[in-house]
Design a protein that fits this description.
The structure is a single chain. The protein has nine helices and nine strands. The protein is α/β, with parallel strands linked by helices. The chain has a seven-stranded mixed sheet. Strands 6-7 form a two-stranded antiparallel sheet. Helix 6 links the parallel strand 3 and strand 4.
């Protein structure tokens, strides 16, 4: 079933706390004084948002509750401590992103799981689509792009600030990672993306964030509850006629485990079958995402009412 995002509960409708200038200042401070001296400052900021971010705190609680109930694992039941640890994991991810942007992530910290040898397609004449999520650190895909410096990776985003982020990435030395705004899949956007694929570039998009305007969604069962997912990744794969594979990056200790999974070699539909075909791919993606959540329960970083339901508050 298709539905439109509600601006009151949509992730993009929540005011962003921070600014590009603050991000730039933080990136500069990390470069100058190092990560360790900056870590306590960032953790204090996260503590502030934990104490006063009631909506984000409740959303993390609801996610942990659904995960525990769906998996039947009592050890995953939420508590004040487990929710705080999820916030802390997010803070650690922010520092990791700065390391990635600044080129301070050594490749020996990457463990690539690619049983189908998908990365061998880096030299293929035409690129492919990678569908990620906000489980773990999707921006480690920059490190994937740097492997052998053989591919340009275009990260498709819904933010209006892509140009400013690109400027910050350029200043940080991330010259093979591009953020591309895709608010609408209009003919000009589709032509641009097709040309990028034809040049051998890869596209990456999150499969768990619905656009605020003009985005079609499908409802899938996720952790035992109905949730809205974007149709965009699967429409793109079908319209661009390119493979759509999955990308997850989960942190374990000091290592980043990058999982590349073959998923949809082709997404095709006949007339009047598109909705049903896309629905099937959305549900398959939701199932894989749920399974990965069990591998890194506290690395889920969607701090908004993902299921968009009126659950009991846990503040």
């Amino acid at each position: 079933m298709n539905q439109r995002g509600n601006a009151d509960t949509h992730w993009a409708g929540h005011r962003e706390r921070g600014s590009f200038a603050l991000m730039k200042l933080t990136a500069w401070a990390v470069r100058v004084v190092g990560r360790k001296p900056m870590a306590p400052v960032l953790y204090l900021i996260v503590l502030y948002f934990y104490l006063f971010g009631r909506r984000a705190r409740r959303s993390a609680w609801v996610y942990q509750q659904h995960l525990a109930n769906w998996s039947g694992r009592a050890d995953l039941q939420p508590s004040a401590g487990s929710v705080y640890r999820q916030f802390m994991a997010f803070a650690d991810t922010l520092l990791d992103k700065l390391d990635v942007w600044g080129g301070r992530l050594s490749l020996d910290r990457l463990v690539v799981h690619d049983p189908a040898n998908l990365h061998a397609d880096l030299k293929a004449p035409r690129g492919q689509l990678l569908v990620g999520s906000h489980l773990g650190n999707l921006e480690i895909c920059r490190a994937l792009a740097e492997l052998g410096r053989q591919v340009t990776l275009n990260v498709l985003v819904h933010t209006r600030h892509a140009e400013r982020f690109n400027k910050l990435l350029d200043e940080s030395g991330a010259d093979r990672l591009r953020l591309v705004q895709v608010s609408e899949l209009d003919p000009a956007t589709m032509l641009d993306l097709s040309q990028r694929l034809d040049r051998g570039e890869w596209l990456a998009i999150a499969g768990d964030r619905i656009p605020l305007h003009g985005g079609r969604t499908a409802t899938a069962d996720f952790l035992g509850q109905p949730a809205a997912f974007p149709q965009g990744p699967w429409l793109l794969a079908g319209l661009l006629q390119c493979p759509a594979n999955l990308l997850f990056c989960l942190k374990q200790g000091e290592q980043f485990h990058v999982h590349l999974e073959p998923f949809a070699e082709t997404v095709q539909w006949r007339r009047r079958e598109r909705e049903a075909v896309v629905q099937q791919w959305v549900q398959r993606y939701a199932d894989r995402l749920a399974a990965r959540c069990l591998e890194a329960p506290l690395q889920w970083f969607n701090f908004y009412p993902f299921w968009n339901t009126h659950e009991r508050r846990h503040d």
